[in-house]
């Protein structure tokens, strides 16, 4: 049986972008609620707490990826992603900026960093992503990062919506999102080119597309968990954060 020919470069890139158009989590009702000012202070706090778990695992999944890479050039390019999130001796990273957001919404940053109160579904989804990047072929792992193709749009919408609707929002609180407006396009330009170069058969292209779909599922599942736990009718599972916990004294 003749194997299906691979798509040409432009068609395959269009296929990847279409996945974001259909499946990216900017279309989830929780984000629409957040960006339009519809979230209560506690719903915003729940989002910050649970999203922190995802942020904290990004450099861990990137380190797991790099441990399998034998090409020094690829390791050098990928190392930037860890520094962007962990920071360096000379500059602050994304995790520290996220904890500044936590403080702005009235949460104790130490409580958020402890990861107490994270929803079980958040842990399962994020940990599944780390395992995917650790265990799957390198092409699949890189392709799963391509949700960054669609991230600048949601960051811009988030900055605009939070500034318009929430008293806590200012340049310091939203510094994570402003920084990602420049970091994410740099990362995705490299990742997209790498995937387009290495997905040279239809089988590999299908695997890369499936990896990107998997990552959109990871992001969507986190918001489904937030909606179920904290938006009416709220059903907070045992052990998850409850309003009133982990607050700064001024917000208690």
UniProtKB/TrEMBL annotation:
Coiled coil: none
Gene Ontology molecular function: pyrroloquinoline-quinone synthase activity
Pathway(s) of this molecule: Cofactor biosynthesis; pyrroloquinoline quinone biosynthesis
UniProt-listed GO biological process terms: pyrroloquinoline quinone biosynthetic process
Gene3D superfamilies from the UniProt entry: Heme oxygenase-like (1.20.910.10)
Domain Thiaminase-2/PQQC: 14-224
Top-level lineage group: Bacteria
Enzyme Commission identifier(s): 1.3.3.11
Cited InterPro entries: Haem_Oase-like_multi-hlx, PqqC, PqqC-like, Thiaminase-2/PQQC
Family of this protein: Belongs to the PqqC family.
The protein's role, per its UniProt record: Ring cyclization and eight-electron oxidation of 3a-(2-amino-2-carboxyethyl)-4,5-dioxo-4,5,6,7,8,9-hexahydroquinoline-7,9-dicarboxylic-acid to PQQ.
Record-given protein name: Pyrroloquinoline-quinone synthase
